[in-house]
Amino acid sequence: MPITKRKRNQVLTKTKKKTPEKKELLVKKLKQSLKKYQRAIVFQYKNLSTNPLKEIQQAWKADSKLFIGKNKVMQVGLGRNEEQSATKNSYLLSPFLKGETGLLLTNKTLQEIQEYCDTYKIPEFARAGHISDQTIVLKEGIDTLKGFAHSIEPYLRKLGLNTQLINQQIVLNEKFILTQEGKPLTVEQTKLLRLMDKKLAYLEIAPLCVLEKNGTFKKL
């Protein structure tokens, strides 16, 4: 006797995934904070690491609120169009939140923020792709790698150095061009620079646009 196949109803509309609780809380927090501060500033950053971020948060803590990371979630909080706008014209900030950017809600004046950003530049380890502004050459011999433990020698070879161990000392067999001015750094070069504690980059912060509480928007 043939087996009859039961007809199944096909669901033509996809069920939307629920927004994770953390994202919902961030959106809610952002919308609430927008109403508390005099202006909102989208800023761009380069070479930002954990410790400088903590310093910036501490410096702006008294009269500002910093949001960084989760650009798409912040766009939801601000609104992506006029109808979705959380406050008057807040949706105009959303297109600027892409890549390495953040959102600062603050009672500080724009001039205060700009002055802070102009002066807050500290050395940072460069990342892959950074264009070197100098040429660094490691000389052959025992002195160049004198401070390194002998156990790291295989790792140095893996990163491209021609080395060997002599009496538990790492010897560089030939000179090595670590960086070249005007050329981008590779991953291996950035690892070597970090090992040698050489910081070729700088933390930079720059405001991109500002929205005043009354809805006045300005691209900077």
Automatic annotation (TrEMBL):
<dbReference type="GO" id="GO:0006364">
    <property type="term" value="P:rRNA processing"/>
</dbReference>
<dbReference type="InterPro" id="IPR051742">
    <property type="entry name" value="Ribosome_Assembly_uL10"/>
</dbReference>
<dbReference type="GO" id="GO:0030687">
    <property type="term" value="C:preribosome, large subunit precursor"/>
</dbReference>
<dbReference type="GO" id="GO:0042273">
    <property type="term" value="P:ribosomal large subunit biogenesis"/>
</dbReference>
<feature type="domain" description="Large ribosomal subunit protein uL10-like insertion">
    <location>
        <begin position="126"/>
        <end position="197"/>
    </location>
</feature>
<dbReference type="GO" id="GO:0000027">
    <property type="term" value="P:ribosomal large subunit assembly"/>
</dbReference>
<dbReference type="InterPro" id="IPR043164">
    <property type="entry name" value="Ribosomal_uL10-like_insert_sf"/>
</dbReference>
<keyword id="KW-0539">Nucleus</keyword>
<dbReference type="InterPro" id="IPR001790">
    <property type="entry name" value="Ribosomal_uL10"/>
</dbReference>
<dbReference type="InterPro" id="IPR040637">
    <property type="entry name" value="Ribosomal_uL10-like_insert"/>
</dbReference>
<comment type="subunit">
    <text>Associates with the pre-60S ribosomal particle.</text>
</comment>
<dbReference type="GO" id="GO:0005737">
    <property type="term" value="C:cytoplasm"/>
</dbReference>
<comment type="similarity">
    <text>Belongs to the universal ribosomal protein uL10 family.</text>
</comment>
<dbReference type="InterPro" id="IPR033867">
    <property type="entry name" value="Mrt4"/>
</dbReference>
<comment type="function">
    <text>Component of the ribosome assembly machinery. Nuclear paralog of the ribosomal protein P0, it binds pre-60S subunits at an early stage of assembly in the nucleolus, and is replaced by P0 in cytoplasmic pre-60S subunits and mature 80S ribosomes.</text>
</comment>
<dbReference type="GO" id="GO:0005730">
    <property type="term" value="C:nucleolus"/>
</dbReference>
<protein>
    <recommendedName>
        <fullName>Ribosome assembly factor mrt4</fullName>
    </recommendedName>
</protein>
<dbReference type="InterPro" id="IPR043141">
    <property type="entry name" value="Ribosomal_uL10-like_sf"/>
</dbReference>
<dbReference type="GO" id="GO:0000956">
    <property type="term" value="P:nuclear-transcribed mRNA catabolic process"/>
</dbReference>
<keyword id="KW-0690">Ribosome biogenesis</keyword>
<dbReference type="Pfam" id="PF17777">
    <property type="entry name" value="RL10P_insert"/>
</dbReference>
<dbReference type="Pfam" id="PF00466">
    <property type="entry name" value="Ribosomal_L10"/>
</dbReference>
<keyword id="KW-0963">Cytoplasm</keyword>
